[in-house]
């Protein structure tokens, strides 16, 4: 079985790395706009730094930090006090006192607003965004970073604005808002270009490369990563960042199936001295990706040891996320080598490690491997879990994408409202002064008219962009839904159609297995021909998944009657007697073919269940017109069942699934010894 390349690129690794750069770049933010000092405040800042770095217990640190906060309250309200408040908030966050951090951050923002200190407001919003991200409050983090970016940009602090915008881009990329993430990365790059900041330009190019790789534009991704590599080589003492760029280039080439080039880049990244000591996770990531690229290229000699080595290092580093990927790669390797039991064991370990850290990608890939290497009943359960998680993640990503758009819209709308209030006040002042000068009044009116037109134009452009974005989201949602429905449909077709017929042929062949008379030989030959027909049906399903089973010109009632006859008869002998009734008030021409197919399959599945389990003598099938609904009833006089205790098999699940697809209602009535009745009600159009 060919091995897929979908493990590249491991976006969580690179995302964590880029985020760590952002946190380092603004871990203890200070205002760059003032050179004023205050010896007492400087003394408190130095004391605070010592407390945070000390080995004191968090409770003791909290008491000391609170004491500094009490002293800081006594100083005049200025930027120096604001800077100390920012440091205090950072300290509370580090010791885990998040409630005090949020309260102090809010107070700092209010203090800065009273001072009309845009820098203080921007820094407090940025720190709040970083905090929300650590709490996995993605929409709140995005909103805070967006607000800080607007404030930073308004005062010309472009490096800070770029970092805030790049944080937004990384969040968007990880929530699969690739279009928004690309736009935010380009805007961040524009900010850094104004200041010539190569380090952050490289980070912006890296994020653009990751996004391009994720959407399948591998050549473009390679171009961005090469730019980032060139920029990082121009920096001093940043070998670990250069190694990371080599890793990104390897991932892009691996996704392009250029494994030899990928291997070269991974080896270049590993060639840096002391990389393991400086960035141990980057080192183990390169090792694992190198071994995996060799595996994908077809190499097998010494590969198991090459895959195990980074796993052992990751375990020693408590790098659970990296260990998950190592276990997945080992599972794929052993699956390829037909060591199914070992592959299943590694996949199970990967799943167990991925769940506690909420590593969705690791969970999904582990479930898929377990489904491929497990027995049928367990495989179905793993597949179900995979589909449920995948659907929930898709819905979550779609919700975040909509939220990102709403945040930008609402923030801009608030800013516009504030601007409108300011503009109105200004107009009142101008009008009051212009009463004595008619010419000034005319000038003001003309200016206001031009401004209003410009605002209307900007608003219309914004609405147009919003509509285009919503359309893109809608198209993506339809695409994902279509893929899921197609998987379910194929499963139902194979189970309900092919497996049912195979079961019937097998039963019939069993009855002639030990007979050697001429009639039995002829009968067996007929069933062998039937197996050939089933083989043709399987081929037809493979080549024409979208073909409808029922053509518009076929008479539905005749098809149902043929089905009833074929299922209830073995070797021209009745398994059970059947009674079929069709209400002539039902206008089948108006019923969509898709609905007919589902009704047909429901009847087929029910009759197969009766044949297998019910030991019935008589089965009744009827279609009736009841007001504005079509009612299908299937009733047998078999052994029945306890509905409350009966385990739901895939057949019954398929029936319920089909009823749901036609917006119908399903009812199952059964008592042990008294038969079973299934009723399906469908609204007639």
Characterize the structure shown.
With 685 residues, this protein is mainly alpha-helical. It has 25 helices and seven strands. The strands form two sheets. It has a five-stranded mixed beta sheet with strand order 3-4-5-7-6, with helices on one face. Strands 1-2 form a two-stranded antiparallel ribbon. Helix 13 (259-270) runs antiparallel to helix 15 (280-296) and helix 17 (320-336) runs antiparallel to helix 18 (340-354). It is extended.
* Rg, Å, rounded: 34 Å
What is the general shape? extended
Strand order within the widest beta sheet? 3-4-5-7-6
Quote the beta fraction.
5-15%
Structural class: mainly alpha
The number of helical elements comes to 25
What is the tally of beta strands?
Answer: 7
Largest sheet: 5 strands, mixed
Sequence stretches where pLDDT stays below 50 over 5 or more residues: 1-27, 464-476, 546-554
- Helicity level: over 70%
Calculate the terminal CA-CA distance, rounded to whole Å: 47 Å
What's the rounded overall pLDDT mean?
Answer: 80
Indicate the topology:
Layout: H1 11-25, H2 39-53, H3 58-72, H4 79-94, H5 98-114, H6 118-134, H7 138-154, H8 158-174, H9 178-195, H10 198-214, H11 218-233, H12 239-255, H13 259-270, H14 275-278, H15 280-296, H16 303-316, H17 320-336, H18 340-354, H19 360-373, H20 376-433, H21 438-511, H22 518-543, H23 556-567, E1 569-570, E2 573-574, E3 577-582, H24 593-614, E4 618-626, E5 629-636, H25 650-661, E6 665-670, E7 676-683
Parallel strand pairs: 3-4
Antiparallel strand pairs: 1-2, 4-5, 5-7, 6-7
Helix pairs in contact: 1-8, 1-10, 2-3, 2-4, 3-4, 4-5, 4-6, 5-6, 6-7, 7-8, 7-20, 8-9, 8-10, 9-10, 10-11, 10-12, 11-12, 12-13, 12-15, 13-15, 15-16, 15-17, 16-17, 17-18, 17-19, 18-19, 19-20, 20-21, 21-22, 23-24, 24-25
């Amino acid at each position: 079985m060919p091995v897929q390349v979908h493990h590249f690129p491991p976006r969580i690794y690179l995302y964590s790395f880029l985020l760590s750069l952002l946190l380092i770049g603004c871990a203890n933010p200070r205002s760059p706009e003032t050179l004023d000092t205050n010896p007492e405040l400087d003394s408190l800042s130095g004391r605070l730094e010592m407390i945070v770095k000390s080995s004191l217990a968090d409770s003791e640190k909290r008491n000391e930090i609170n004491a500094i906060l009490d002293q800081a309250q006594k100083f005049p309200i200025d930027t120096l006090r604001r800077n100390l408040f920012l440091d205090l908030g950072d300290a509370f966050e580090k010791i885990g006192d998040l409630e005090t951090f949020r309260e102090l951050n809010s107070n700092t923002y209010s203090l800065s607003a009273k001072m009309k200190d845009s820098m203080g407001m921007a820094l407090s919003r940025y720190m709040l965004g970083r905090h929300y991200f650590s709490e996995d409050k993605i929409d709140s983090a995005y909103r805070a970073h967006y607000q800080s970016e607007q404030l930073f940009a308004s005062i010309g602090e472009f490096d800070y604005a770029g970092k805030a915008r790049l944080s937004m881009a990384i969040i968007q990329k990880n929530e699969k808002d690739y279009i928004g993430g690309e736009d935010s990365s380009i805007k961040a790059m524009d900010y850094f270009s104004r200041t010539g900041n190569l380090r952050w330009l490289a980070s912006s190019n890296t994020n653009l490369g990751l996004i391009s790789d994720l959407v399948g534009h591998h050549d473009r991704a390679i171009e961005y990563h090469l730019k980032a590599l060139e920029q990082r080589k121009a920096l001093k003492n940043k070998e670990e960042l250069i190694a990371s760029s080599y890793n990104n280039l390897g991932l892009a080439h691996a996704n392009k199936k250029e494994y030899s080039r990928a291997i070269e880049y991974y080896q270049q990244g590993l060639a840096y001295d002391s990389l393991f000591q400086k960035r141990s996770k980057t080192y183990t990531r390169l090792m694992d990706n190198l071994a995996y690229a060799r595996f994908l290229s077809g190499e097998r000699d010494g590969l198991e040891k090459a895959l195990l080595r980074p796993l052992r290092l990751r375990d020693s580093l408590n790098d659970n996320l990296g260990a998950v990927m190592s276990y997945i790669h080992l599972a794929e390797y052993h699956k390829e080598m037909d060591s199914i039991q070992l592959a299943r064991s590694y996949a199970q370990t990967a799943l167990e490690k991925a769940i506690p850290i909420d590593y969705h990608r690791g969970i999904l890939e582990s479930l898929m491997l377990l489904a491929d290497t497990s027995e049928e009943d367990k495989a179905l359960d793993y597949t179900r879990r995979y589909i449920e998680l995948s659907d929930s993640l898709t819905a979550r990503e779609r919700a975040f994408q909509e939220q990102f758009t709403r945040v930008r819209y609402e923030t801009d709308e608030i800013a516009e409202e504030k601007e409108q209030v300011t503009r109105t006040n200004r107009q009142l002042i101008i009008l009051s002064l212009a009463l004595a000068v008619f010419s000034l009044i005319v000038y003001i009116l003309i200016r206001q008219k031009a401004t209003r037109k410009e605002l209307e134009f900007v608003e219309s452009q914004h609405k147009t962009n919003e509509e285009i974005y919503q359309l893109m989201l809608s198209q993506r949602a339809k695409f994902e839904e279509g893929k899921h429905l197609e998987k379910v449909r194929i499963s139902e077709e194979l189970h309900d159609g092919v497996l049912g017929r195979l079961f019937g042929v097998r039963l019939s062949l069993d009855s002639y297995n030990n007979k050697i008379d001429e009639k039995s030989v002829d009968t067996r030959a007929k069933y062998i021909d039937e197996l050939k027909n089933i083989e043709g049906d399987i081929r037809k399903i493979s080549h024409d998944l979208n073909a409808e089973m029922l053509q518009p010109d076929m008479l539905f009632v005749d098809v149902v009657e043929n089905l009833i006859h074929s299922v209830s008869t073995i070797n021209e002998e009745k398994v059970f007697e059947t009674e079929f009734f069709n209400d002539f008030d039902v206008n089948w021409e108006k019923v969509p073919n898709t609905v007919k197919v589902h009704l047909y399959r429901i009847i087929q599945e029910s009759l197969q269940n009766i044949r297998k389990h019910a030991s019935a003598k008589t089965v009744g099938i009827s279609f009736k017109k009841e007001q504005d609904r079509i009612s299908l009833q299937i009733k047998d006089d078999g052994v029945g069942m306890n509905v409350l205790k009966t385990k739901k098999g895939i057949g019954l699940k398929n029936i319920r699934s089909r009823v749901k697809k036609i917006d119908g209602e399903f009812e199952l009535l059964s008592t042990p010894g008294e038969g079973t009745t299934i009723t399906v009600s469908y609204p007639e159009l």
